[in-house]
Write a structure and sequence with these properties.
Layout lengths: L8 E5 L4 H11 L3 E6 L20 H4 L5 E5 L5 H13 L2 E4 L5 H4 L4 H7 L4 E6 L13 H7 L23 H21 L4 E5 H8 L1 H10 L8 H4 L21 E5 L10 E5 L5 H8 L13 H4 L3 H12 L4 H8 L6 E3 L3 H5 L2 H5 L3 E6 L3 E6 L22 H7 L5 H8 L7 H6 L1
Parallel strand pairs: 1-2, 1-4, 2-3, 4-5, 5-6
Antiparallel strand pairs: 7-8, 8-9, 10-11
Helix pairs in contact: 1-7, 6-8
The chain binds coenzyme A (COA).
């Protein structure tokens, strides 16, 4: 069976997390992703958060599946020539260097267009054009600058960052969409284009509902926020809303049986209007179905604390999975708080390939997250991440057409091997 992006060659100049998430997705969709790394060093994450001495870290392996790795010193003359040849041959160049780094290497957008007018050049940067465009940015900086941190946490506590890597992996996703769209447009125009996904913009896009609430706040208090029920006045900016639902249906995280010892014995519980009567029956308050002040959604907004306290009295008598089993058939939306341990052991996620076990020559077997996008005509088989420079000479020969003699000369040029190794040989 063919893959969606079969035949697309990606020059992967990415490192750390944001860029690699993007190119890993492209690889899973079938592109030939050639990751360019610095000889002897490689992507810094290979050696970050190491758990198996001498092996590539999980940080690296889990972000670089299904890719080939080649090592090229881009500051070496021969290295630059190889890169030029790669630019001429590939369809897409993806990079997330600090602003200006690619230009300093001699690969400005203007030069790339001269070398290959069909090239799609895709970049992650921290900020878009403007006063912060030169800044280096990491995940949590993006979460803070994109509006996520100011709206996450409890109103009486400090801003919080979230465990979901919305700045890095979220922006990688945005970039991948831009690249696929640019490939489609190139089919019609024959031209490449520049694709930019700034991390601040990506985070803000994911915080869209909070900008919605900012404008609603200008018209009056946000009545679905528990702050409203608590009688605490609103300020002039969207407050942190704890675990309140971000939509129009009130929801909270509630304790379940075993919460005293299990930090994840909780459920998310949504009192969706359509399921209100079932909620009342389940928790043993059938009178609330018709009682004045309870029967209509708008009337309940100032009583949400009372209502959720009562629901919690019920959820505390059940495990989070029993809550799910009872509520789901009644269309009451609930969700167990799953720990990473429970997710790692989840048979359903393994069966769909969302959790995969991968074998690696130096670290052995490890778990990873497989492709979260399922396509009926483009199946994904997750293969291990490449060792540093594992495919350098294979790519030089197969993809770029260098002869054996030329490859032998490149090996001694310092373009593909670290200086120390060269001296030892
Ligand atoms: N051979 C030789 N030099 C290489 C090379 C190679 N194969 N690959 C990279 N380099 C050089 C670059 O040319 C650059 O050199 P220069 O600064 O002398 O021009 C240098 O390595 C460092 O690149 P840089 O991107 O600045 O790395 P950094 O570790 O200083 O910064 C980030 C890391 C992530 C902060 C920065 O890359 C960044 O802000 N990226 C954009 C936003 C982003 O993606 N952030 C999230 C990361 S998950």
């Amino acid at each position: 069976m063919t893959k969606a992006l079969e035949g697309v060659k990606v020059l992967d100049f990415t490192h750390v997390q944001s860029g690699p998430t993007c190119t890993q997705l492209l690889a899973w969709l079938g592109a030939d992703v050639i990751k360019v790394e610095r000889p002897g060093e490689g992507d810094a994450t290979r050696k970050q958060l190491v758990d198996v001495a001498g092996a590539d870290s999980l940080y690296f392996t889990m972000l670089n599946h299904n890719k080939r790795s080649i090592t090229i010193d881009t500051k070496n003359k021969t290295g630059k020539e190889i890169l030029e040849r790669l630019v001429k041959t590939c369809d897409v160049l993806v990079e997330n260097f600090a602003p200006g780094a690619l230009d300093r290497m001699g690969f400005s957008w203007e030069n790339i267009q001269k070398l290959n007018p069909r090239m799609i050049m895709a970049s992650v940067k921290g900020f878009g054009p403007g006063k912060y465009e030169d800044c280096k940015v990491y995940e949590n900086v993006a979460q803070c600058a994109g509006g996520s941190a100011s709206t996450t946490g409890f109103r009486d506590g400090p801003p919080l960052v979230t465990g979901a890597q919305i700045g890095d992996s979220g922006t990688g996703l945005h970039l991948a969409l831009g690249i696929v769209a640019a490939l489609l447009q190139r089919e019609r125009t024959g031209r490449g284009q520049k694709v930019l996904a700034p991390m601040q913009d990506g985070v803000l896009n994911l915080c869209r509902v909070k900008l919605r609430d900012q404008q609603r706040l200008e018209k009056g208090p946000l009545r679905e926020y528990s702050q409203f029920g608590d009688g605490v006045p609103f300020g002039n900016a969207v407050p942190r809303a704890g675990n309140d639902s971000g939509g129009g249906q009130p929801g909270r995280i509630l304790r379940c049986k075993g919460w005293e010892t299990d930090p994840n014995a909780y459920t998310y519980f949504i009192t969706q209007a359509a399921a209100w009567e079932h909620v009342c029956d389940v928790i043993g308050e059938p009178g609330w179905k018709t009682a004045p002040g309870f029967s209509k959604p708008a009337e309940r907004l100032d009583k949400l604390n009372l209502i959720f306290d009562r629901i919690e009295q019920w959820t505390m008598t059940k495990t989070k999975f029993e809550v799910m089993d009872i509520c789901n058939p009644l269309d009451i939306p609930v969700g167990p708080i799953l720990s990473m341990k429970e997710i790692a052991e989840d048979e359903g996620l393994r069966a769909t390939g969302t959790i995969v076990e991968v074998d690696h020559p130096t670290r052995g077997k490890y778990l990873s997250v497989g492709c979260p996008i399922k396509m009926s005509d483009s199946p994904v088989e997750v293969t291990r991440s490449p060792l540093l420079g594992e495919h350098t000479y294979e790519v030089l020969g197969q993809v770029l057409g260098y002869t054996a003699d030329e490859i032998a000369a490149i090996k001694t040029s310092g373009a593909t091997e670290p200086a120390k190794k060269m001296a030892a040989e």
